[in-house]
Specification:
Length: 352
Amino acid sequence: MYVALWYKYGKPIHGRAWNNNGGVECSFPYKKAELTTKRELEGHIQILTYKGNYKTLGYWYEWLPLKSRFDDTTDRELVRCGQSTPILMTCADKEKRLGYLDLSTEVAMVSYNKKVEQIAGGATQECLGIFRNYKPPPNVIVEEDQWEDTKWGNEFPKNVEPAMKRELKTAADVPKYQYVALWYKHGEPVFGRAYPGKDGKLMASFGAKNQENCGPEIGSLQILTLPDPSCMGLEYKWMTLADGRADEAKKWEPVHVGTAAPAVCVDDDGVEVLGCMNLTNETASIGFQGKQKKLESDVCGHVSAVTRSSRGVVTALTGRCVSIACSVLAVASEISANEARLRVFFFFLLIM
């Protein structure tokens, strides 16, 4: 979700936006209705962006309880437009969604499922608000996956690492260096492979809904990136799921979004490719030659984990294995998905 801004009769209202199929979709609460369509919104919306860093911009964004706006400090200020400020609210269904607080009435509103949910008064103070912080950010160790928002055709990012940390054994016309990419199709997360084209521009391929998406229609997507070494709290490692389960000293859990996880598959001919695994039914797929190639494997699954920090303290680990999409490059070897015997490699992540 992204913080979005819209105006109704000149009045600013914050809501949420997201990427779907490379296009922008959004939801804004207005009175008792959820507004989502171009016709309902009657114009343009704006999305809050942060292009740069503290050194270049002099500030950074921080989510804090709304009651923090009453703190006696000049180091930060609440992000607002008129009497509207964006909030992150826990809804009745326990899901967290972006909406807005009307500062003139202290009423908070969030829209979803064609309805508007609202709270008022003291209950709003536990919602999270976004603040512009002018103090240097703390040197926090990064312990979460870092996803860079980008677009098909942009310059290829530099702070990325290829699947398996090496060239993959691919067919002649498939890039050997493939990078974990995340895209949404009809609201559902899909992992695929990203790679630089001959001109250095970002290209990608995803297999979903019985077809391959691999051109400008992809639009917006995300690339798994590595934090700066100075704040790196993660260690990524590729291994088979069996090896992960056999590691009694550490336990592992797949890196995933929803039930989707990235994974690398190897067919009987040793051909490797990066795609998407469904952790619920242990199936995987890739996009290739205009189609979604589907396959099944009896060796996919979850692994969970605890590891030790560098100080020797046992630390609970939100570490995950970036399951490497288990897709057989069936077109290269003329082996059907059902005939191929897969060896699934998982990309494991440690929080140090």
